Amino acid sequence: MDESQPIPLSVEQCKDLLKMIGQALCVKAALISTRLLSKEDKQDMLNGLVPVDSLMTAVKCWMAARMPDYANGLTDPYREPEPKREPIYTPETKRTPYKRFKR
Q1: Is residue 95 a part of any domain in this protein?
Q2: Inside any domain, residue 32
Q3: Of 18, 52, 69, 101, whose CB neighbour count within 10 A is largest?
Q4: Residue 58 · residue 36 · CB < 8 Å
């Protein structure tokens, strides 16, 4: 095979590549996949048309821009979702059983 020919990757290989880049740069692979890469970019990865160095550089630039949602055409920086708050226990709102001791 000629060295200039791109080598197609499997879906698993692409996922592993994103995980590796994510771990190297301390960012979740899912964010790279959903916010940076478009469908066409992912297809190019599968076809072997995206060199690892280029992808790494793109992720670094995307992170420097505060991780906007380029895949969906948005430029607002990424905000982490707020954690779900546990309801505060109050005796009026929640009845809990209590243990009775035998005498």
Answers
A1: no
A2: yes
A3: 18
A4: yes
Question: What does pTM read for this prediction?
Answer: 0.74
SS3 track for the chain: CCCCCCCCCCHHHHHHHHHHHHHHHCCCHHHHHHHHCCHHHHHHHHCCCCCHHHHHHHHHHHHHCCCCCHHHCCCCCCCCCCCCCCCCCCCCCCCCCCCCCCC
Give the residue numbers spanning the domain of 32: 11-72
Q: 1 versus 27: which is more confidently predicted? A: 27
In-domain check, residue 38: yes
Q: What is the pLDDT of residues 57-76, one digit of tens each?
A: 999 999 999 999 999 999 99
Please give the average per-residue pLDDT across 87-99, as a whole number.
Answer: 59
